[in-house]
Amino acid sequence: MTLSRTALLMLGACSLPLAPVPAQAQDRQAGDELVLDTITLTATPDSTVAAEGYVGPYSQGATKSSTPVAGMQQSVSVITTDQIRDQGAETLGRALSYTAGVVGEPFGADPRFDSPTIRGFEARGAQYVNGLRQLRYMGAPAYETYGLQQVEVLKGPSSSLYGAGSPAGIINQVSKRAQDVDFGEVGLGFDSNDSSQAFFDVNRAASDDLAFRLTGIGRDSHTQIDELGNERGYLAGALRWRPDAFTTIDVIASYTQDSPISPTGVPYALTETASGRTLRELQTGEEDWDRSDRRMWNTGVEISHELDTGWTLSQGVRYEAFDWDYTGTYVSGLSADGSQILRGANAQDEDTTGLNLDTRLAGVVTTGAVTHRLLFGLDLRRYEADTTTEFFYGTPLDWRNPDYGDIPTGSAWYTSITSVEQTQVGLYAQDEFEIGNWRGSVALRQDWTEQTGDTYTNFAGDGTIDQSDSALTGRAGLGYQFAGGVMPYVSYATSFDPEIGTDEDGDTLDPLTARQWELGVKYQPAGMAALFTAAIYDLRQENVTVALGNGLSRQIGEVTSRGLELEATAELTPDWSLRAGLSWNDTEQVGGTTDGLEMPNAPERLASLWLDHDLGNGVSLGGGVRYIGARKGDLANTYDLDAVTLVDLGARYERGAYSASLNLSNLTDEVYVANCGTFGCFYGEGRTVTARVTYKW
């Protein structure tokens, strides 16, 4: 290895104060050979720095450690900023659309939520920000994708480190942090739905120890339905301070204000008789009634301090507040003659606050031939929500000749008021060990949860929530690292998630539990930025809760999900980048009235391929194809949804500090039903052209 002059000077300078010069060394005669002890330099990867290219080698949330993704005994996918940029993804769902085993937008375009499915299960309650759970029990609100530096998907149960959470996996959204170099960008964007945006991202290193970053975007979004959109403003600040050589403090805060309008959809029966191209752009809501005002605050601090013992003490804390008032419209069926869409109206007022605290102690211990990377943690979570929901009757709509108005009619026929507090305390421990070429991990966690509150409905009257649960969960994995970069592995994991409320009979909901076996192999070629993975899994969930509408729920028993996933992410050459995925998934409900039926939004087959090529003259071209297989729309498998193949294209031009990009999603303008359920069917987005211009420095 050849060291530069600067590196030699740095090594020499660092060695000066280590020890006094021995007397015998001073007496050494010229020409005598001086033999030094071996010096080992260890670099600790900084997973808080955005990865370049498509391959994200580290995951902030997978093991809460610096273990590379290629060395983890579980399926983890990382979506980088470069991939999000090249594909023109402006939502989490779009960013996940080329990830194996994930349906990114199962409900089509919905400006309110990102509701992806993982391995056949809904994951709207499994979304995290910087390793801490978003605390909204009815589904996480859409987080601003421009404020992220990468997205991580942990597939399968992860309670051993995170406690109560979705057994399907975890979607961790990593916020942009302050960096140690100066840079910035400003830009404008437009699309063929008359959407527009302006954005900026500026980072300044004030000194060697202090840096700050400010990120913002203002967006007026529209969809193929003119009235369905969202006016959003997002502002985020980040600060990094290193008070000494052993301590790093990151402060990350954001504020979002937007107005997402609820999609209304059309009745299933109408999709079988009318033109899909007509229905895709049909407004069945009420412009004078549909209103939305949503505000989200997030403030977090991450502290890492290396102790004199070599162990590292870390803590992450985040406070979030969520306030949402909205009124919307829904469809409930089709008239007997097929001319009128039956409709209703709803209104909701939410006020939610949450506090997450996660404290960790990590260190390395060697026992004989075994190296242990140990992690011990305590996390606390407190969540409070006050929600009022009302449903109203509404007038039918002649879909051929719409005459809007008269929604709602009369007073609310259903009212629900809920005030709930949820507290979780968890203790966990993890051991990632190495014995020669063997790589293994063991994690255990004990959780205690408590839920208290009051409920009211005009049907059932007053009620109380007073529920306590505890659970011991764990994960174990073992792999063997071959010299060529291949690591086969096997893992087993369990999880639980306490459910809030009661079922249709008034009984307290049991916690959702899960267990999963996974057998896989990972291949990371030497000297190449690439990761190829394959995994088969058997995932079983018990006490799955499903919404029946009108505030009622039911637990359907056990659900199984078995499948195979293949994924490839690679910088094939300095000019070619690749992202590909192939999945087979078989879900089945076990027991009850839906025994033997599939889960909704769980296609048996998924496939995707994206290629990007840098022509070397400032021009880059990319293209991809996504296949979403046939699937069912609801638990009763009443609605059959056809398979669809979608094509996307992208192009960029960079010259000096300026760049321009053009993206086309659904190039062939496929008309397809993304989802059907009790409240209607929703179409996927048609062809959309998006353009952006950016100035960087």
Can I get a quick summary?
The chain is mainly beta and 697 residues long. It is built from seven helices and 37 strands. The protein has a 22-stranded antiparallel β-barrel. Strands 1-7-8-5-6 form a five-stranded mixed β-sheet. Strands 2-3-4 form a three-stranded antiparallel β-sheet, with no helix packed on it.
How does this structure look, described?
This protein has 697 residues and is mostly beta strands. Helices cover 6% and strands 56% of the residues. It has seven helices and 37 strands. The strands form six sheets. It has a 22-stranded antiparallel barrel. It has a five-stranded mixed beta sheet with strand order 1-7-8-5-6. β21 and β22 form a beta hairpin. The N terminus is likely disordered.
Low-confidence stretches: 1-31, 33-45
Helix proportion range: under 10%
Mean pLDDT: 88
Question: Oligomeric form of this entry?
Answer: single chain
Shape: globular
Cα gyration radius (Å):
27 Å
User: How many H/I helical runs?
Assistant: 7
Question: Approximately how much beta-strand content do the residues carry?
Answer: over 45%
The count of DSSP E runs of length 2 or more, i.e. the number of strands, is: 37
Largest sheet: 22 strands, antiparallel, barrel
Distance between the amino and carboxyl termini = 34 Å
Helix/strand-derived class? mainly beta
